[in-house]
């Protein structure tokens, strides 16, 4: 529990620092400081596969959403149908990446990357779809920076706990992790 509190405090300080430095340097990061920092912390703290796999998965989902927005601007109609097709394609790209990597990248990290980009960019895109190249690049840059700060802030604090209590459980693969009750614990030693 102390690790979670410490990670939260460090992340809060990092988010505050992002906003202060953003204003001082004219970077305009404050609009995504909390989103990026929190998402970066999630990618760092979720004990599923390696940090590298989680980061690559996040980046792949992020890029999938970016491709979805470029397709929306270039070939899809600006309608509910066009938005629906772009959303479906984005999710299918994420699933395709998981299949191609034979489940080495966690689907949740790809979906988190796609959702993060979409959540930060949708209003900007809707205001000027023809400017997708410049506006999406600006949004991507600010998000990558804030996600990196959140990831490193949480990783530094949570690194020793991850080593102390490894979590290698994947749904349908092996036994329950140590922090979950086993079937014997739930049903008793003998029935």
Automatic annotation (TrEMBL):
Signal peptide coordinates: none
Q: Which UniProt keywords apply?
A: Membrane, Transmembrane, Transmembrane helix
Q: Which domain of life is it from?
A: Bacteria
- Report residue spans for region: Disordered: 166-191
Transmembrane regions listed in the UniProt entry: 32-48, 55-75, 81-100, 107-128, 140-160
Coiled-coil regions listed? none
Q: State the protein's name.
A: DUF1097 domain-containing protein
Please report the organism this UniProt entry assigns to the protein: Marmoricola endophyticus
Q: What is the lineage of its organism?
A: Bacteria, Bacillati, Actinomycetota, Actinomycetes, Propionibacteriales
């Amino acid at each position: 529990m102390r690790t979670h509190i410490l990670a939260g405090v460090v992340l809060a300080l990092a988010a505050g620092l992002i906003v202060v430095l953003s204003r001082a340097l004219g970077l305009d990061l404050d609009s995504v400081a909390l989103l990026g920092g929190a998402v970066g912390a999630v990618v760092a703290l979720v004990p599923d596969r390696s940090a590298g796999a989680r980061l690559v998965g996040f980046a792949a989902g992020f890029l999938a959403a970016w491709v979805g927005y470029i397709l929306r601007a270039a070939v899809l109609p600006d309608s509910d149908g066009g938005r629906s097709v772009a959303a479906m394609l984005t999710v299918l790209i994420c699933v395709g990446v998981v299949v191609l990597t034979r489940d080495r990248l966690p689907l949740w990290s790809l979906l988190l990357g796609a959702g993060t980009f979409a959540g930060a960019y949708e209003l900007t895109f809707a205001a000027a779809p023809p400017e997708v190249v410049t506006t999406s690049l600006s949004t991507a840059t600010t998000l990558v920076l804030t996600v990196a700060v959140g990831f490193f802030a949480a990783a530094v604090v949570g690194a020793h706990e991850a080593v102390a209590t490894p979590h290698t459980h994947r749904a349908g693969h092996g036994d329950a992790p140590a922090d979950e009750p086993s079937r014997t614990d739930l049903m008793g030693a003998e029935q």
